[in-house]
Structures are given as C-alpha cells and as structure tokens.
C-alpha cells in the first residue's frame, strides 16, 4: 500500500486534508517523488529525529543546500538559485527514457 493506514487515520482525526494522487500511485506524481528521494538519500532525511525542532532544522538545511549548493541536471548543472537568475534557455542534461533504453539494451 502506498500510504500507511495509521497515518491516514491521524490526518482524518485532526481534520487534515490528505494530498495524494487519486489512485495512490506514487508514479502519478513523479516530480514530488523524485524530490522526496533526493531529500531522503542525498540529505539523509530518511531517519528518525530526536525532536520536531531537530527535524525542522534538518529540512531547512537540506532545502538551503538543494537550492544554493547542489547543481541540477534539469537546469544546465546550475543550482536552482543560479538558474533562476539566468535569462534565456537552460540546457537540460538528463537522458530521455528512450536514450536510457538504448544504453541498457
């Protein structure tokens, strides 16, 4: 199952609207899933924190690095902050699905 039922129950109990795909399929929201993977893998946010404050500080730190230090293939190997200050076309440097299939066949 895509989402833990206990998590859903807590959200419903507190009247919090759930924001997920209609079918519960993570592939329907690939961009968000990619960013979640980066935050968990590259910035080590896939762990238990001692407190909400510690978790918040770790997320703030990850966002700062993601936007100011980490270059992105989707914006010509610039950081998002650098790319945002650019004008004109930014070359995307990732491989398309068909290119990946050719490389693996």
What is the gist of this entry?
This protein is an all-alpha fold and 105 residues long. The chain is 50% helix and 0% strand.
Describe this structure in words.
- This protein has helices spanning 5-13, 30-41, 52-68, 80-85, 97-104.
- With 105 residues, it is mainly α.
- The chain is globular.
- The relative contact order is 0.07.
- Mean pLDDT is 81; it is low at 100-105.
How do the strands and helices of this protein lay out in sequence?
Elements: H1 5-13, H2 30-41, H3 52-68, H4 80-85, H5 97-104
The rounded Rg comes to 18 Å
What structural class results from the helix and strand content? mainly alpha
Considering DSSP H and I runs of 4 or more, what fraction of the residues is helical? 40-55%
Shape: globular
Mean pLDDT: 81
Instruction: Give the SSE string.
Output: HHHHH
DSSP helical segment count: 5
Q: For the terminal residues, how far apart are their CA atoms?
A: 31 Å
Strand content: under 5%
**Low-confidence spans: pLDDT under 50, at least 5 residues?**
100-105
The main sheet comes to: none
Number of strands: 0
């Amino acid at each position: 199952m895509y989402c833990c039922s206990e998590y859903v129950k807590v959200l419903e109990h507190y009247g919090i609207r759930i924001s997920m795909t209609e079918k519960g399929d993570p592939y329907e929201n690939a961009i968000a899933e990619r960013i979640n993977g980066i935050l968990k893998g590259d910035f080590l946010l896939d762990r238990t924190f001692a407190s909400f404050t510690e978790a918040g500080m770790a997320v703030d730190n990850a966002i700062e690095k993601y936007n100011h230090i980490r270059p992105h293939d989707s914006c010509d190997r610039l950081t998002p902050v650098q790319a945002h200050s650019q004008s004109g076309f930014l070359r995307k440097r990732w491989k398309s699905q068909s290119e990946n299939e050719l490389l693996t066949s």
